[in-house]
Specification:
The complex is a heterodimer of chains A (about 200) and B (about 450). Chain A has about 200 residues and is an alpha/beta fold. In chain A, about 35% of the residues lie in helices and about 25% in strands. In chain A, helix 2 runs parallel beside helix 4 (about 90-105). By secondary structure, chain B is α+β, with helices and mostly antiparallel strands. Helix content of chain B is about 50%, strand content about 20%. Chain B is built from 14 helices and 14 strands. Chain B has helices at about 30-65, 70-75, 85-100, 100-120, 125-130, 145-160, 165-180, 185-200, 205-220, 225-240, 240-250, 260-265, 335-370, 375-385; strands spanning about 5-10, 120-125, 265-275, 280-290, 295-305, 305-310, 315-320, 325-330, 330-335, 400-410, 410-420, 430-435, 440-450, 450-455. In chain B, strand 7 and strand 8 form a beta hairpin. Chain B is elongated and about 85 Å long. Classes of the chains: A alpha/beta (about 200), B alpha+beta (about 450). The interface of A and B includes residues 34, 86, 87, 158 and 201 of A. Strand 5 of chain A pairs antiparallel with strand 1 of chain B.
């Protein structure tokens, strides 16, 4: 029994060390640093797609033609971006990234989406009743969108054992509100290989 | 080791999948010795499983009394350790949906789903402990039918919340799971997929899912529900698949079925009744004593009790409509069949581990007897008592899933009446008021009725 005592003590020490290792740790990192943990769609994918798609959209001829014809930047509204992929993708952050890139480019104006408009209109109605006439904003002065941006996020999975290939395809289309013409179609593809661990503690 | 390895690759590159596989591990002599030494400590910690099982019995009584809110309080009142975490989350998700917290239910079920994925990796530590004490020392890894139902219930929750795209995500993941287990036929899961695609107005994908549901019913030698037959007739007709449509007309011999135009121009309510409670597992023990040295031996394996739901069918009708317009439910899933099949499939492994455990435990006892006979006796009793079958399971599941579909004319403020037949309880009826039906819109409603009796508790 005496020879076993060191082994037991060693085990207890090991177990207590593992318990200590379970405490929370936080590391602040740059937002553009790639951090892939689970292999699921994440902030890096959202950012990469929105940056590249918008860069592509702004470099195509539709923008120059519109500006030359009307002498003003086009007004764009974001329509529905449907998530048809295998994952619960937060479409809101993806759309937010795209809006930011487009507005910050200075070449496109954005108008509020359907849900945002309702809130703004409620506020305007409220202003008519409660604000001074000098500061109240009138109804019927909204800017109508020239184009609507719509899209889908699709995915294909290929799995064998613990290894999975995840392929995402993001399609965006810019549609003219005046005549339904599609003036730009953008596509971005992302492919990842995810290997799940075969072992755990 | 805990996180998956992720490699981002250029989409233009062609990749070939590596074949997955399990590594096999042997118990090293050092670890064998280590677990032998730690055995008494582990026996003490194993007592947690007993309290968890007792907690389950209290929850069952509350469910039989139709009190899911108290059952959830009861569940959350007990500390649940790591190895029972998955089954705790499954029960929590189910109890949350029973009281209408669908978003909370999805959160719990998603956590259970992720945990199930993590737990599918082999734990050398847990396997070794299970070989030394009992199977319940391992983390609860939901069997395939339970993992399939996680996706189904999440999809149903999303449908009830009118979030078609989110429900679609679940059925795509479900399809991936079923693809990985192509010998597993779960018609209800395929039918739920069809409902989700129907909900999202994707008739081609809905037909594929309904076809797979039909094939799964045939494969399992179960009667095909009339609703499914109607869906197949409706969609093959709409998609102009004439040969397939004619085949279904001849096979099903149905006089009428709703056309796609009826679905497009009316609303529909799909009513799901989660009927009864899935049977519980119990432990069956075989005990013996050695003639030579008096050592006690025990092998314990789980078995399912037999249970019967009292409600036999459900009827749905719009308040004020003629009696002949009520929709009768059909049984789409008999979940106790899946539970028993899963246990039967797992039984050779359970018995193998139990026999190996007897050898491990008795080796430890023999060594202890050599050093100190009294310690040997204590250890023998401890190993004997600790030999318990793993009786954990997702016990808040229903035994049956009854489904009906009611076509509603577009209108506001309709009242739907649900009557459950077979229960003597006057509370076995429910009304849904303020139902707004719109053209082409499907609404999913559900209720649970846990009333059931155990008809056979012996192995």
């Amino acid at each position: 029994m005496r020879t076993r005592l060191p082994v037991v003590l060693f085990c207890l020490f090991g177990l207590s060390t593992l318990q200590l290792g379970c405490s929370t740790s936080v590391d602040r990192i740059a937002v553009d640093e790639v951090t892939d943990l689970s292999g699921d769609w994440n902030d890096t994918d959202s950012r990469l797609v929105s940056e590249e798609m918008i860069r592509d959209a702004l470099s195509r001829p539709w923008l120059g033609r519109f500006t030359a014809k009307y002498g003003k930047p086009p007004a764009v509204i974001v329509g529905e971006v449907r998530n048809l992929s295998h994952e619960h993708v937060n479409v809101g952050t993806f759309v937010g990234d795209m809006e930011r890139e487009l507005i910050n480019s200075g070449e496109v104006e954005f108008v509020a989406s359907r849900s945002e408009r309702d809130e703004v209109r409620d506020e305007r109605r409220d202003q008519e009743l409660h604000s001074s006439s000098a500061t109240a904003k009138a109804m019927g002065q909204e800017t109508g969108a020239d184009f609507m941006l719509k899209g889908t996020i699709n995915s294909i999975l290929d799995t064998e054992g613990k290894t999975q290939v995840r392929y995402y395809q993001i399609d965006l289309t810019l549609i003219s509100m005046a005549d339904n013409r599609k003036l730009w179609v953008g596509q971005k593809k992302i492919k990842k290989v995810v290997k799940k661990p075969g072992l755990r503690w | 080791m805990g996180h998956p390895l992720i490699r981002r690759i250029d989409v233009s590159r062609v990749s070939t999948n590596q074949k997955g596989g399990f590594r096999r591990f042997g118990l090293s002599s050092f670890l064998s010795r280590l677990f032998e030494l730690l055995l008494p400590v582990i026996f003490i910690s194993a007592s947690g499983c007993v309290s968890y099982t007792l907690n389950k019995a209290e929850i069952e009584q509350l469910l039989l009394a139709q009190q899911p809110e108290l059952a959830l309080e009861q569940l959350e009142s007990k500390k649940v350790n790591g190895r029972n975490r998955a089954v705790y989350l499954l029960d929590k998700g189910m109890l949350q949906r029973m009281q209408g917290d669908l978003a909370g239910s999805n959160k719990s079920l998603e956590e259970a789903k992720q945990l199930g994925t993590q737990l599918s990796a082999v734990s050398f530590r847990e396997q070794s402990t299970a070989m030394s004490v009992n199977d319940a020392m391992r983390s609860y890894l939901p069997p395939l039918f339970e993992r399939t139902l996680i996706y189904c219930f999440k999809a149903i929750n999303y449908l009830e919340l009118q979030q078609g795209d989110a429900a679609r995500v679940e059925v795509l993941q479900l399809d991936e799971l079923l693809k990985q287990n192509d010998g597993f036929y779960f018609p209800f899961a395929r039918y739920v997929s069809g409902l989700v695609f129907d909900f999202n107005n994707e008739p081609d994908n809905a037909l594929i899912a309904y076809r797979k549901a039909y094939e799964a019913y045939l494969e399992r030698l179960k009667p095909v529900p009339v609703l499914l037959k109607q869906d197949l007739l409706r969609l093959t007709d709409y998609l102009s698949l004439r040969n397939e449509h004619q085949k279904y007309v001849k096979t099903f011999k149905l006089a009428t079925w709703p056309r796609q135009v009826d679905v497009r121009d009316n609303g529909a309510v799909v009513m799901m009744v989660f009927n009864g409670l899935i049977p519980r597992k119990h432990s069956q023990e075989i005990n013996s004593q050695s003639f030579n040295d008096g050592q006690l031996y025990r092998i314990a394996v789980p078995y399912y009790e037999k249970r019967t739901a009292l409600v036999r069918s459900a009827q749905v009708r719009v308040a004020g409509s003629p009696l002949n317009t009520q929709a009768l439910s059909e049984n789409f899933a008999q979940l106790d069949d899946f539970a028993e099949a899963a246990l039967t499939e797992d039984m050779p492994k359970i018995i193998g581990r139990a026999v190996a455990r007897v050898a491990v435990k008795n080796t430890a006892v023999n060594k202890a007897v050599d050093e100190n006979p009294l310690l040997g006796i204590v250890l023998n009793i401890a190993t004997f008592v600790s030999e318990q079958a793993d009786t954990r399971g997702w016990y808040t599941l229903p035994q049956e899933i009854l489904i009906s579909r009611t076509i509603l004319e577009p209108s506001v403020d309709q009242t739907l009446e649900l009557d459950l037949h077979g229960s003597g309880n006057p509370g076995a009826r429910k009304n849904w008021t303020n139902i707004h039906s719109r053209k082409g819109q499907m609404q999913v409603l559900s209720w649970y009725w846990s009333e059931s009796i155990v008809t056979h508790r012996t192995p």
